[in-house]
Design a protein that fits this description.
Layout: H1 19-32, H2 34-63, H3 67-94, H4 96-111, E1 126-133, H5 134-137, H6 141-151, E2 159-166, H7 174-179, H8 181-184, E3 188-192, H9 199-207, E4 215-220, E5 224-225, H10 229-239, E6 243-252, H11 259-283, E7 293-296, H12 297-303, H13 312-322, E8 326-337, H14 343-364, H15 384-417, H16 423-431, H17 435-457, H18 465-473, H19 475-494
Parallel strand pairs: 1-2, 1-4, 2-3, 6-8
Antiparallel strand pairs: 4-7, 5-8, 6-7
Helix pairs in contact: 2-15, 2-19, 3-11, 3-15, 3-17, 11-17, 11-18, 13-14, 14-15, 14-19, 15-19
Length: about 500
């Protein structure tokens, strides 16, 4: 690759997008067909009815259980809580080493005047994709495109910034402005994906194009990649030829928008800076998380994205792991993104994730016991540790939604049958019904404090100590909320709910 012209490809005339006509016809048919409206209403509200019935039935059932049976349930739920807390704190402690290594690498680069190990002319060719659903992200796409084109520090003859978007209707003058970007920025490519209705469609269309790149980076439209993020990621590939995927750290930057965004920011610091690298160290495998992820082009073009999966990113990550591909988490590959600012937007986003994880778990749980089938990795065999890690990630995590909510229902039954008259009695009902509960509860609290302390050590610049303290105080309510969302996702999967609700951006 000697210049940006080497990136030129001819994708020909794009066929007219018929999504507008399909959606309009569907809406018209729904408005004219009362039976279909009723069916749609039932499909939307059946999951709610299932989850509500689950809580009501479970709570009522516990009010009729004997004291001995209640004691058994109580012990099971407290032990489960202990396991979850213990696994979480182990992941947190395991994350200390990769965090230290990431800081050490940054310090070394700074001491050398930010001279990276690989010379510019030896770097791998990179396709960086910004994937957008235009009606939802029309207010931010130009800003993110210009940022990527102007701020990312990578040799321009080695990188192409690809703006991939789909839209059910023409949006002007924005689309014209987007398609004019390559006139000013030779390393830009703008593609309106024909007949696309999802992120998976956009990516799969791009993967049919022969761009000649070595690596492909995937970003959602709301992201600001750190200027050095792509360089850090490519250096990981250059240093280890066995690496197939590099997943970076995602940081929420709109913490001041609302209380909700500040709590999501703490959650993301805990997930991306602690849980992901800690789990990869403990279980021996990492995961591509949907954005700020870098793939070897050959692998991604082979696997593609499964458009039938709500979380096609997790599915592709698990398919890559199932065949022996190596994924690493790099804390220096940083990107900044938006968190939902309202609870309805947050609820829709997490429901989509929950149902998608349920789909992926059902599909890939067989990795716990089966043998890798990929002929290109015939010598690869998953270790016992990796298999148990898959079991914990796909089965125990999904089952924990029921255990957490069952514990909640059990406590509600105590409140109903033995309504406390003081705060002391309520405290006893919630945690100290039985002597063993005291030990399990105290150990779980210690695990939580240790996890959040480690999170505090690696928190982003947008998260304060106060935010972490507030997050820790409301953490029990957060667990119940996330477990409820998990159940809702299962209920949606049961009724085969398939609507795709993109996260609102502004």
């Amino acid at each position: 690759m000697s210049n940006s012209n080497d990136f030129t490809i001819d994708i020909g005339e794009m066929p007219p997008c018929s999504t507008n006509e399909k959606e309009a016809a569907k809406k018209h048919w729904l408005s004219e067909n009362p039976l279909e409206r009723i069916s749609s209403f039932i499909s939307d509200w059946t999951p709610f009815g299932l989850v509500a019935s689950y809580f009501i039935f479970s709570t009522c059932l516990y009010t009729y259980c004997s004291e001995g049976l209640i004691a058994v349930f109580w012990f099971i739920y407290m032990c489960t809580n202990f396991y979850i807390a213990g696994a979480t704190v182990l992941e947190a402690f395991m994350s200390i080493t990769p965090c230290r290594e990431a800081r050490k690498i940054v310090t070394q680069a700074e001491e050398k005047g930010w001279l990276f190990p690989t010379a510019h002319d030896k770097l791998l060719v990179l396709d960086l994709l910004i994937v957008a659903y235009l009606p939802n992200e029309q207010d931010i796409i130009m800003d993110r495109a210009l940022y990527a084109l102007e701020q990312i520090d990578y040799p321009r003859d080695k990188i192409r910034i690809n703006i991939l978007y789909n839209t059910p209707k023409a949006i002007e003058p924005l689309e014209t402005e987007l398609h004019q970007l390559p006139l000013k920025y030779p390393h830009a490519r703008v593609i309106k994906v024909p007949n696309s209705t999802s992120k998976a469609d956009n990516l799969n269309y791009f993967l049919t194009l022969n761009t000649g790149s070595d690596l492909i980076a995937i970003y959602d439209c709301d992201h600001y990649p750190h200027p050095n993020g792509p360089r850090w990621a490519v250096e990981r590939f250059m240093a280890d030829e066995e690496i197939d995927i590099v997943q970076g750290r995602c940081v929420v930057f709109n913490t001041e928008d609302s209380f909700l965004t500040s709590m999501i920011a703490v959650e993301f610091d805990k997930i991306y800076a602690v849980s992901h690298p800690g789990r990869a160290t403990m279980w021996g495998f990492g995961l591509f998380c949907g954005s700020n992820g870098y793939w070897r082009s050959s692998l991604l073009r082979e696997l593609k994205m499964d458009g039938d999966m709500l979380t096609e990113d997790i599915d592709s990550a698990l398919r890559a792991f199932s065949r022996g591909s190596k994924t690493v988490h790099d804390l220096n590959v940083t990107s900044y993104e938006l968190a939902p600012t309202t609870f309805p937007a947050f609820w829709k986003q997490r429901l989509r994730w929950a149902q998608g994880w349920a789909q992926a778990s059902l599909k890939h749980l067989k990795m716990v016991y089966n043998k890798p089938q990929d002929p290109l990795h015939s010598d690869y065999n998953r270790s016992f540790t990796a298999r148990f890690g898959v079991l914990s990630l796909l089965l125990i995590r999904e089952a924990s939604y029921y255990l957490v909510t069952q514990y909640t229902c059990l406590v509600l039954s105590f409140v109903i049958t033995k309504f406390p008259t003081s705060g002391e009695e309520l405290w006893k009902f919630v945690y100290f019904q039985y002597p063993v509960s005291q030990w399990l509860f105290l150990i779980s609290i210690i695990c939580l404090v240790a996890t959040l302390w480690i999170t505090h050590q690696v928190k982003s610049e947008f998260v304060s100590r106060r935010m972490i303290i507030i997050f820790s105080i409301q953490y029990p309510f957060y667990l119940v909320l996330m477990a409820t969302i998990g159940l809702y996702g299962h209920a949606r999967q049961i009724v085969r709910y398939s609507s795709w609700n993109p996260t609102a951006r502004k």
